[in-house]
Amino acid sequence: MTQQLDQHTSTLVSVRWHEDTLELLDQRVLPGQIDYLKLTEVLHVWHGIHDLVVRGAPAIGIAAAYGVVLGTLNKQYADRNQWLNQVITDAEYLATARPTAVNLFWALDRMKLKAKALAESTCPIHDLSAELLLEAKAIHLEDEEVCRSIGEHALGLFHDGMGVLTHCNAGGLATARYGTALAPMYLAKERGINLKVYADETRPVLQGARLTAFELQQAGVDVTLICDNMAAMVMQKGLVQAVIVGTDRVAANGDVANKIGTYGLAVLAKAHNIPFYVACPVSTIDMDTPNGELIPIEERHESEITEAFGTRTAPSGIKVYNPAFDVTPNDYVTAIITEHGILKPPFHISLKELTTKLQHKP
């Protein structure tokens, strides 16, 4: 068992690369244990993503990028095409690990594009993997910078003493550092702005209880844990003045897919006239998916609902429906916060303007 603390944020690092090995913080056993799994094969990375060792859209993308590199190491290649085929094969395999988080596919596409460019370059064949690793490390570093920028933009929406509700985990454990929805909370702490954070436990896997409450408490943020079905009362009593969540995919019209239970929070927020914010990097925006109805929703094993920490809590043979995500329609979303600024409705226009601008950026 090892423990690796980020010296800047005092939060645990979810993904790291060390001596040709991908190390993933096993988030399945937090907060009781702090274990890092050392992965050296693509198969292990696939299971690390699929089995929730690593979770959170940006962190999944980072892990997959490193996984592509792992697949090229310690092998002999007859030529560049054989090396490139290895990259493409492994990337396509890793893409099957989870269907909803678009960052997974974004990172893998970026790695394939880099690999194709390297294969067509004059780079010596024995250096191709080392150069590909630099791309994975760039994705990792960029995510840290992106998350801080998201936090800077979001922070202006909050003020000292404000109550803020969040769902699932969109913090440092889900990204390279800072997180998306939790980024303004970390920056607020750094600057002496006191936010009162309420964290949903997030059934059925309890990411809010095990991860969000844990990492915010470790950072000294004022955090209160509540059950998911307490959110309405917390809003009714005026304890929160804003809701902020992350997302695994934003459709072209501004519909957002996030952890199951997010849609219910958005409906509650609208009923109580509370702004509902979504924080995400631009890489989470999927302009090729017109609306939320077309976002694939992952369904997970029934045991996540019928068992709790190894103990059966439901009748044997009971039918179970266990979608991991739901889709919040865009008209429940007050704003989408990216590293490039805050987008407001109508989202089909603001999202298109931003992505078009970035496509033409030199």
Offer a concise description of the structure.
With 362 residues, the chain is of the alpha/beta class. 38% of the residues lie in helices and 16% in strands.
Element layout with pairings:
Elements: E1 15-17, E2 22-25, E3 36-39, H1 42-50, H2 57-72, H3 80-94, H4 102-119, H5 128-155, E4 163-166, H6 183-190, E5 196-200, H7 207-218, E6 222-226, H8 231-236, E7 242-245, E8 249-251, E9 256-259, H9 262-271, E10 276-279, E11 285-286, H10 303-306, E12 307-308, E13 311-312, E14 325-328, E15 335-338, E16 341-343, H11 347-359
Could you explain how this protein is built, in words?
The chain is α/β, with parallel strands linked by helices and 362 residues long. The chain has two domains: 15-147, translation initiation factor eif-2b, domain 1 (Four Helix Bundle (Hemerythrin (Met), subunit A), Up-down Bundle), CATH 1.20.120; 157-359, Translation initiation factor eif-2b, domain 2 (Rossmann fold, 3-Layer(aba) Sandwich). The chain has eleven helices and 16 strands. A seven-stranded mixed β-sheet has the order 6-5-4-7-10-15-16. A four-stranded mixed β-sheet has the order 11-8-9-14, covered by helices on one side. Helix 4 (102-119) packs antiparallel against helix 5 (128-155) and helix 5 (128-155) packs across helix 6. The longest helix is centred in the middle third of the chain and has 28 residues, at 128-155. The relative contact order is 0.11. Mean pLDDT is 95; it is low at 1-10.
